[in-house]
Amino acid sequence: MQALLDVILIVLELFTWAIVAVAVLSWLVSFDILNLHNSAVRSIWNGLNALVEPPLRPIRRFVPMLGGLDISPLILLLIIYFIERVIKYNIYPYVVGY
Length: 98
Fold this sequence. Notes:
By secondary structure, the chain is an all-alpha fold. The chain contains 3 helices and no strands.
């Protein structure tokens, strides 16, 4: 059980970094620093968006855009942070002893 919780925590951490990468890439694309016509950039963009967009879609349905600012990634990061803390402080201590 401890190994399963460790894997879940690692996946959540990697997913957090994927969300941050999508946010940074979207800024770089919108400020014309990166161009989506480049095949490498487009491949990375499509791969990360395919990973991050499904959990963001339900959040975007409930949270309105705030003056053109999308805060759904921030809300998803807070949800992931909450799940990590629940696992680390409420579940993990009871599993480690066994």
